[in-house]
Each structure stands twice: as C-alpha cells, then as structure tokens.
Amino acid sequence: xxxxxxxxxxxxxxxxxxxxxxxxxxxxxxxxxxxxxxxxxxxxxxxxxxxxxxxxxxxxxxxxxxxxxxxxxxxxxxxxxxxxxxxxxxxxxxxxxxxxxxxxxxxxxxxxxxxxxxxxxxxxxxxxxxxxxxxxxxxxxxxxxxxxxxxxxxxxxxxxxxxxxxxxxxxxxxxxxxxxxxxxxxxxxxxxxxxxxxxxxxxxxxxxxxxxxxxxxxxxxxxxxxxxxxxxxxxxxxxxxxxxxxxxxxxxxx
Length: 254
Description:
Layout: E1 2-4, H1 10-21, E2 26-30, E3 38-39, H2 45-52, E4 57-60, H3 68-82, E5 86-90, H4 96-109, E6 114-120, H5 131-136, E7 140-142, H6 154-166, E8 172-176, H7 184-195, E9 201-203, H8 211-224, H9 231-236, H10 243-250
Parallel strand pairs: 1-2, 1-4, 2-3, 4-5, 5-6, 6-8, 7-9
C-alpha cells in the first residue's frame, strides 16, 4: 500500500491519477480531504498514524512553506512508527531559504531502508499566476530579472515520483528540470507566440517584495539555481517536456 501526501496539489493530483491508471493500491492524504482521501495533519499525530496504517511506501509532498520541516518530520515519524520501508520525498533544488525548509526532511528520509529524493526546478505551472495580467492586457511582474531556470512540467515530476515509488531507485537524488533554461521574459515570449498576442514583463525591484520572498529571489538570482539535468530522461526513458508543450495545453489560443 502506498500513501500519497499532498494529494490535492498540482503534482500530488497527477501522482494519484497515474497510480489510478495503473490500478496500484494507494491511499491519498490531505489536510483538507475530499472524496476518498484521508485526513492527515502534521499538527495531529493521531491523524497521521491512521493515514500510515498498513502503508509500505510513502510519497512525501509538503506545503512548500516555512511549515515544511515540521510537516516532513511529523509525517516521517508516523511512517517510522508504522514500519514504512520506502520514502520518496519531493524536495527542491538546493538554493535559498526554501531549500533550508526541506533539509531536515531530506536528512530524516535518508534514515529509511529505501529512499529517493526528488529536487525539482521551477514548475511550469507557476506561470498560471500570470493569468490575471494576461487577461487584463497588463505587463507581467518579473522579480527574477534575466535569471534563467530549468522550468519543469509537473507531469514529469509526477511520473518520476511514480517510477521511484514502484521501482528500484534506492539512495538516488534526482535533479528534475526541463530541457532548457528560460527566464521569465522568455517564458512570456512563448506565451505570446501561443496566444497570438504581444505580452510583456515589468521588472519588480527586490525591495518591493516581502522580505521572506525577497531572500529567496535574491538567492535564485545569484545563478545557483540555473541548472539543467538529464535525470527526467534517465528515469522516464524520454526527454523532459518543454515549457512550450505545457503552455500550449494550459494557455490554448482563443
């Protein structure tokens, strides 16, 4: 039995879909469950004990907020009590404060008999936050300047997670990126071509951002996160999807 945490998120929902298509037995956990999902809250150990009962392998996908470490450690403690033997943790490329939120969970994950760490780059789906500006014909705010990142399709992340859960990827740390480095203006140029409209960006100074967010942006703008990896292709046996492929499906031409 597999337990999928973060089952209502972008990647978690896709993991659930893929496992359902393969007729794999799993349990989906969420802090706000719907349908067949089970409740699990890192502030409620009893709920986690119920969620991990009878589970052999865990997909650990946390909130991506300062609560990340507390969430990871609480879920992993429950998994250890339940005798879970395999953990696949969704982490992040090790740049900036967000990576620090994941560090305790990464270290605890490595204590399990079988473990895999997944470290993705910027999600292609993050560009959905630009939809209001696109609809209004306004410039898209860009705090990242010309920094280029290996924008990755969340579907590729989900497919890699499923392969790690079902296959032998013990003691592997995968860096998961798309096939090309793209800046925010370059992503916007892709959307312009797809939508047949002229879109633009406007630079946002770091001092205009909340300090916690600015710290992360500052770290990424240093260039440490400008990484490309072939790990998606290694695991899946095909190239990673491009940002344009993702965008054509989510921003179809009117």
